[in-house]
Amino acid sequence: MLVLLHLFALFLLVLLGFYVFVANPRNRAHQTFAAFIAFLAFWTVKDLIFWNFHDASASSGWWASVSFIIALLMQCALAIFAWVFPENSRTPRKRAAVLFAPSLVLIPAALFGLLWRKVGFQNGNFVIDLAPLAYAFVVYVYLVFGYGAIVLFRKYQKYHGTQKGQQVGAILWAVIITGILKTLANIVLPFFGNYELLPFSTIFVLPGVLIYTYAISNFKLFSLQTALDQFRLFPIAYKIALSIASVAILSFIIFQIPIVWWAFQDGNNFEAWRKYLVFSIISALVPNLLLVLLIVRTISRPLQRITLAAVQVTEGEYGTEVDLRKSNDEIGLLAESFNEMSRKMATDIEQLRQLNEQLLRTEKLAAMGTLAAGVAHEVNNPLASISSLIQMMQAKQNLDEETKEKLKLISTQIQRIIQVTRDMMDFARVRPAAKSLIDINEIIELSLRLAGFDKSFQKLSLKKVLVNNLPKILADTDQLQQVFLNLLLNARDAMPDGGELFIQTSQINSDIQIDIADSGFGIEAKDLKKIFDPFFTTKQTGKGTGLGLAVCYGIITAHGGKIEVSPNDGNGTLFKIYLPTNEKAAVN
Questions:
Q1: Taking the chain, what is the end-to-end CA distance rounded to the nearest angstrom?
Q2: Which among 86, 271, 295, 477 has the fewest CB atoms less than 10 Å away?
Q3: Nearest Cα to 491, choosing from 449, 513, 520?
């Protein structure tokens, strides 16, 4: 019966210690409590061996030495716990050095048997005759115990009325209960020669340990979900250690006990040992294979997935993520960090690509603007002279019809050249924007009225969704009108036989968004990236100069906004314009 109680106490102590340690392995209070439980487990093992399997005729000095030393270590752990709980503060080194200094003398005294004159069994009864130094040892143990209790009581007063105060108060009750029961079983009754409760001293500690654990775990000791969450957050190394321990215990219960019973049922002989050794080796293969499987699933497979994802990223597949169940062990944190790094890398590279395209486009605009200004200036001077000569020739009265027709054709082509050079001058001209607070809906309505004078534009089916009460923007009215009019006329050209034109305004965060979509023939995917380049056009030869969208791009970017183009749903083209509101522009 006693051995079962000791085994039960040992199992419960290990389980509670592991439970608390799992809750927060890096917390000093949890680490100290785990150390206290470890000392108490050693105490239990010591009593298990001594009171159940010790030969009465053999020396019992080892039991006394271990009992004194572990009793002192447990009180030292209590004092450290009192220092660090509940703030998770550091142990005061100087104070600890002073408090624990006597241990440097008392522990060796216990090891060399200086604390007793006689210890062991006489006539089947356990007796111990203590030396005077043992009483000094016991007094010192109680001094450390009392010091820890006083520190806890002061913290209870400090945190009274809070959850921390409740936790410290519960631990104080555990200290009092444990102290009373241990004193009764180990000090008071043995002092009067009664050793009957001495083998059960470990059992008396369990109520206090349960209260300890209940308080440290924020009063969630009996929550299954809390236990599962703690195991999920446990470091991988400890998960493996727990797995190995669990497999060892289960394999012992499932395989070793039946093998021992079967092998030695006919007595302890050579054949029994042969059976035991052979089938023990065979049975060891099963738990080992299970351990390999656990390690592969816990470490090897996740690392393989992370490695494959890393290789994909190095090959240019930025944004690749590892698909693993979320956990807070080392591999879980590694996978989460890798995924975050990959996502950020993909985002940064996309931003760099967009910035690079914008920089290239800006450089093209600047270069083409300088070139356009020079070309327009050089062309306009001789063109003006040619135009004057043509007008002089047309003023003559004796021209035949063929000559008049040719001169008219030449004049028309001159006007076309003049229009091209005017567009080039508009493109190259750097004019500071006359910005003021404007309503974007009013600019769009004005642009629609101007475009409405065109007969081809009147064939279009127009749908407007203009949101009221949009914040005003700081912009140049004429320049934005030029942008919208250009986009509206481009939409008209894309739908020569009529079609649908959709215009919408909205607010996205601190930007005003304008959508202009048509149902025309659209723009090929290969041309989308070049659509804002100077002199690039998808229109037929002679229908456009390729400067309109480049001018639009320059105006929008000069206002701190951006313009994007994409295929419309189904057919056609969608332009999205983003302009900052007055509040955002003021911040910038």
A1: 81
A2: 271
A3: 520
**Can you tell me the mean pLDDT for 574-583?**
86
Binned at pLDDT 50, 70 and 90, residue 72 comes out as very high
pLDDT digits (tens, 9 = 90+) for 461-497: 999 999 888 898 988 888 888 888 888 888 888 888 8
How much is the pLDDT for 516? 92
Q: Which residues pair with 118 in a beta bridge?
A: 129
DSSP state of 116: E
375-394 per-residue burial string, b: 16 or more CB within 10 A, e: under 16: bbeeebeeeeeebeeeeeee
Choice between 63 and 431, residue whose per-residue pLDDT is larger: 63
DSSP labels, 157-214: HHTTTSHHHHHHHHHHHHHHHHHHHHHIIIIIHHHTT--TTGGGHHHHHHHHHHHHHH
How confident is residue 115, by pLDDT bands cut at 50, 70 and 90?
very high
Of 472, 518, 473, 477, give the one whose Cα is nearest residue 494.
518
Contacts of 449 (CB under 8 A, 6+ apart): none
Token readout for 147 is 């010091």
Backbone angles phi, psi at 495, to 5 degrees: -130, 65
Cα separation of 79 and 81, whole Å?
5
3-state secondary structure of 540: coil
Q: Which residues of 165-180 are buried (b: 16+ CB within 10 A; e: fewer)?
A: bbbbbbbbebbebbbe
User: What one-letter code names the amino acid at 267?
Assistant: G
Tokens for 192, please give them. 């009067």
587 confidence band (pLDDT: 50, 70, 90): very low
**Which amino acid makes up residue 25?**
P
Q: 3-state class of 360 per DSSP?
A: helix
- Higher-confidence position of 586 and 181: 181
Instruction: Please say whether the beta carbons of 243 and 56 come within 8 A.
Output: no
Cα separations in angstroms, 482 against 346, 356, 448, 478, 572? 36, 27, 11, 6, 22
Q: With beta carbons less than 8 A apart as the criterion, state whether 496 and 460 touch.
A: no
Positive or negative: CA dihedral 100, 101, 102, 105: positive
The 3-state secondary structure of 562-588, one letter per residue: EEEEEECCCCCEEEEEEEECHHHHHHC
Q: Cα(299)–Cα(301) distance, rounded to whole angstroms?
A: 6
- 464 and 484 Cβ atoms separated by less than 8 Å: no
Residue pLDDT, tens place only, 504-541: 999 988 889 999 999 888 887 777 777 777 666 666 54
User: What SS3 state is found at 359?
Assistant: helix
State the pairing for strand pair 573-580/435-438: unpaired
From the list 426, 282, 418, 329, the residue with the least C-alpha distance to 368 is 426
Task: Give CA–CA dist 79/91, Å, rounded.
Answer: 10
pLDDT (mean) for 55-61: 84
Q: Say how far apart CA 100 and CA 79 lie, in whole Å.
A: 10
pLDDT, tens digit, for every residue of 163-205? 888 888 888 988 888 888 888 888 888 888 888 888 888 888 8
Does the pLDDT of residue 224 top 50, yes or no? no
The answer to whether the CB of 89 falls within 8 A of the CB of 159 is no
